[in-house]
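User: These chains co-purify. Model them together.
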Amino acid sequence: MSQKSTRNLPPVALLGMAWLVPGSAHLFLNRRFRAVLYFVTVGLFFWLSIALGAYVVIPGTEGYATESFAMFKFLGGLANGLHFFLALIFKSEILNYSTINQLKAVLTNEYATTLLYTAGIINILSGVDALDIWKGKKN
Amino acid sequence: MGPVILGFIFALLVSGCFAFIERSERQERIRYFIKAFCYFFLSILILGWLMRLLPLN
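Assistant: Joint model of the two components:
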């Protein structure tokens, strides 16, 4: 990707790209190693957290109204971009707990939920990193 | 997969990401990565060992 074409992209689009597909903005900015690192880290952490029984907070579902800081928890999941939407699409297959209490009773539930938010934060930070590269503050 | 291996992978990937986010020079980045990885992994080992003392059963 030439320097000129990367400069033509508005920063909001770059941030959106970084959020939706982790590592894509770095790939666009020709930082391949970083792109792979962010893609693998966010993807691995997100799906590992789902496998360990993370509680993905979704508005309009059972327990959303009674959940404390529900909006922040939802945003924490949403920060994972495409992975979050994939989890929503295949939720009947992967989020297969009949009740929230059953999910929260899973031994690794707390660790998994923390890992889910960690993946989200890394994804957002990778977007900020991409923006810094685009601005020329970093190499 | 054992918890130590999971902790190792976690420390490795998070340190790598933080090194790229926090530092811009190659040498500084490597130094930061090694330092962050050691802190993360040692913390996991020490806290994991201490948690054995908790009455979880």
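The interface with chain B takes residues 34, 37-38, 40-41, 44-45, 48, 115, 118, 122, 125-126, 128-129, 137-139 of chain A (CB under 8 Å).
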